[in-house]
Amino acid sequence: MTTGAAAEPPAVGWAILGTANIARAAFVPALRRAGGGSVVAIGTRDPERGRQFAAREAPGARVGTYAEALADEAVRAVYVPLPNHLHREWAIRALEAGRAVLCEKPLGTTVDEVEAIIAAAGRTKGLLWEAFVFSFHPQTDRLRALVAEGAIGDPREILAGFHFRVRSPENIRWSAACRGGALNDVGCYPIHLARLLFDAEPETAWAVRRHDGHEVEAELQGMVRFPGGRRLLFTCGLERAYDAEARVLGTEGAVRLSNPYHPDAADVVELQRGSVLTRERVGGDQPSFTPAIRHVHAVLAGEAAPAHGAAQDALGTARAMEMVRSAAARGD
Ligand SMILES: NC(=O)c1ccc[n+]([C@@H]2O[C@H](COP(=O)([O-])OP(=O)(O)OC[C@H]3O[C@@H](n4cnc5c(N)ncnc54)[C@H](OP(=O)(O)O)[C@@H]3O)[C@@H](O)[C@H]2O)c1
């Protein structure tokens, strides 16, 4: 009879494509906290930049081109934090290399692109997630539970904003070629949140946008209508101080999240019913990417069924974004 503990599943080898800021600031620290995996390969256009990134963020990781990183035999999962216009090509190539893929949002910048990536996942029987990591976060579970148990009655409206200030004119967010702009960068979050929370697909959208001299929209405000008269009213942009607050308003009360997408230890979930206000903090003591990475590891270890996969979650958001974009273009 053996008395030892069950064997640990093998650690997941990750490749990162691109020495991206989000990889350094969010993915790598979250992977460290998640445990069960490490960065073994870094793909880059510039080997020297890749070596410096590896030395700082993932000592021992091999540095090569994007294609070499995908081909590395130790790689089981690939994180794609490339500019938006490259998601389609590299998510598909990673799937075709037989890797599980966590691709940055938006998965694609048109419905056609998203359909092509999802088709590749189907063809290769691959695992594919869009990095709306809040879908996996316990704070989102708490919000969904509050709504499901009727804490605010019938949820009628979501008021949400996501703004931050992008100072450098060189930033990919200001580039049309990289498919930047407020909607692709931050507006996609409230739309994804509303679809998740209403568990429905939008019917119509209305929007206005301002370019403020940029080649992509600097700000956009919109309304997305869901079945039954439910609606999302949202504002997004690249010119204001950081703010990502969302409120879900129902027939009996309201929930406010100070940051639904990337909560930290200071962020709160507030429930207001009449004059009673309750406040809690849920899961903000860990990097916001950590629950999503743990999920990928659990699926690869055969310990969990895939949840929030792109095949189920991504197309509706892409369609809603296209509705919003078309509505904004009509008002230009
Ligand atoms: N989920 C989230 O919370 C979150 C947060 C921020 C950003 N994002 C997403 O993550 C992606 C990257 O954002 P980021 O702010 O980290 O971008 P970034 O710092 O500019 O990094 C993008 C990387 O892509 C590579 N690249 C390839 N072609 C490029 C080109 N033509 N121009 C610029 N870089 C190019 C570069 O790496 P090499 O030169 O080494 O190849 C670069 O470091 C975007 O899709 C964004 O929407 C997600």
**What's the number of structural domains?**
2
CATH homologous superfamily name of the largest domain? Dihydrodipicolinate Reductase, domain 2
Q: Counting H and I runs of at least 4 residues, what is the number of helices?
A: 9
For the record, what CATH class of the largest domain applies? Alpha Beta
CA-based gyration radius? 20 Å
User: What does the main sheet amount to?
Assistant: 9 strands, mixed
CATH architecture of the largest domain: 2-Layer Sandwich
Taking pLDDT < 50 over at least 5 consecutive residues as the criterion, the unreliable ranges are none
> Percent helix among the residues?
25-40%
Bound molecules: NADP nicotinamide-adenine-dinucleotide phosphate
Label the overall shape: globular
Strand-pairing-aware structural class: alpha/beta
The separation of the N and C termini measures 74 Å
What does it look like?
The protein has nine helices and 15 strands. By secondary structure, it is an alpha/beta fold. The protein is 35% helix and 25% strand. Strands 7, 8, 9, 10, 11, 12, 13, 14 and 15 form a nine-stranded mixed sheet that branches. It has two domains: 12-131, NAD(P)-binding Rossmann-like Domain (Rossmann fold, 3-Layer(aba) Sandwich); 134-287, 2-Layer Sandwich (Dihydrodipicolinate Reductase, domain 2). The N and C termini lie far apart (74 Å). Residues 18-22, 44-46, 49-50, 81-84, 86, 104-105, 131, 172, 178, 185 line the site of NADP nicotinamide-adenine-dinucleotide phosphate (NAP).
